[in-house]
């Protein structure tokens, strides 16, 4: 029981750090007069996700205990967040937040591997016992959002100081965790295998190539509302100054994370009932609704539409990520599965997120006046149209029968 509690603390703090700034940072940048660069800065997470997990994974597999590497990365991240809190110009802010992304993004995977390693050594059932531990990560993310909102730090550098202090604490805590030594790569492993790129051979198969193409296109959607959601809601401050959504911006947006946690529990039912392809198609349609409901909603008479958009986020975010991961688990040879799962993360949270943040920045800077709510509906409808086109194309070109899934 004590071991599960210690691992729960790891997951809670890991995502508390991220939640302390991720959702509210757009407002902070707008407050600094950098609202036109939000997409550029948020793309740093995509760049880091594309290159760092593989490098850090090699280090953890060959030379350094995972818990020590985890602690070191959070220590460096804490320093970067502290320096970012003192930055007042965009080049400095970008530099320190980019460095923070390089250090933080690989710690997500490391936090999982540490839990798996410790649980395996203690004969714990990871399939049954890890999900209740991991859900506390989502709770930590939500709690951080609430703390920042209730403390009035949505447009303040204090959100970065909170994240920095938490990262420092987690770094020190990591060094007290049970050891997770390197597994050591097998002798004779190819460079492609070492880099986790041996799954590229799967792209020779048409259906797998189509799947990864749509994973990139879906990844474009993943971070747009995280990057711009708080800025969008705050644009109604003059029109609806007393609205709950405006006054408690982060708390209102946290409904999305609560929905995410709940929809995870619904995935087994939907997969059994409809199959992987339909569930992934539901995700794409949910993204269309997420953006479209933002376009017609507001904190006044349109509050119901905004709330519904928060609710469908759980389906949008979870259904493709998890069902896509299961598709790879079922459809790839065992020797490629780990690499294929890593490649899925690279193309969705890496390449897709990079394209999405830069693309969203171009659209929003073209149509939106950041000092008012005018122009936002046009931007959201453009994103909704994009999701609709991708959903139609996915339904037409991705072939996967539910009957095959049931047999598998």
Report the CATH superfamily of the largest domain. MFS general substrate transporter like domains
CATH-derived architecture of the largest domain: Up-down Bundle
The helix-strand sequence is: HHHHHHHHHHHHHHHHH
Largest sheet: none
Total domain count: 2
Radius of gyration: 21 Å
> Given the structure, what is the number of helices?
17
Q: If you had to describe this structure to a student in words, what would you say it looks like?
A:
- The protein is mainly α and 408 residues long.
- The chain folds into two domains: 1-179, Up-down Bundle (Growth Hormone, Chain: A), CATH 1.20.1250; 197-408, MFS general substrate transporter like domains (Growth Hormone, Chain: A).
- It contains 17 helices and no strands.
Gist of the model:
The chain is mostly helical and 408 residues long. Helices cover 78% and strands 0% of the residues. It has helices spanning 2-19, 25-31, 38-62, 66-85, 90-121, 126-150, 158-174, 191-194, 206-222, 224-234, 244-247, 249-274, 276-296, 303-331, 334-367, 376-397, 402-407.
Topology:
Elements: H1 2-19, H2 25-31, H3 38-62, H4 66-85, H5 90-121, H6 126-150, H7 158-174, H8 191-194, H9 206-222, H10 224-234, H11 244-247, H12 249-274, H13 276-296, H14 303-331, H15 334-367, H16 376-397, H17 402-407
Keywords for this structure?
Growth Hormone, Chain: A, 78% helix, single chain, 2 domains, 408 residues, mainly alpha
